[in-house]
């Protein structure tokens, strides 16, 4: 038989191609196969999204190290994970604006800026991803990881953070009166998780590393807000 993926000749006794790993004897795509593929992508014990989410929750740095060291089949692709969670988060933001956010209590200029940030939320997250990765690489330069490996790590970080944002937005919509309190608590928990992730990834527990992580968080927030504000001003100048 000829593998439909890599065109190598494979013995009839093989269920999977020994060259590329694709299953042999695949027929035309149909709705049943589509549902099966979707189900596997979420529940696959080896590389499904649920498997990844569970491990990123308590060992994010270790997951990223394992992935860049070669265990690519063990975890869902970090870049696909980031794109999926950003897309879902964008939907929840739209619902949050309608259900829980009262724009009448916000000043006109702040309202326009907030609406702009929400509208292009996905663009800003994906734009900040390489900048975020660069900052982590820069502050921990010399620890045997290159920039691309830090991009991989940051994709996992950003993707999981988007998941936490989704859960937070769901809580905000259910309990809009506690928005400020919940936002503070969730923001603090995410920051602690983020710090642990970097400490795991670089296999360090030093006080100096913790200070660098705090500085990374501060710079990332400042740069992100600066980009949003500058693009908003440019947008108002040229398109409004």
UniProtKB/TrEMBL annotation:
Keyword Membrane: yes
Protein name per Swiss-Prot or TrEMBL: DUF3667 domain-containing protein
Chain segments annotated as transmembrane: 79-100, 120-140, 161-179, 185-202, 214-235
Alphabetic keyword roster: Membrane, Transmembrane, Transmembrane helix
Organism: Flagellimonas profundi
InterPro entries cross-referenced by the UniProt entry: DUF3667
A Pfam family assignment: DUF3667
The keyword Transmembrane helix is annotated on this UniProt entry: yes
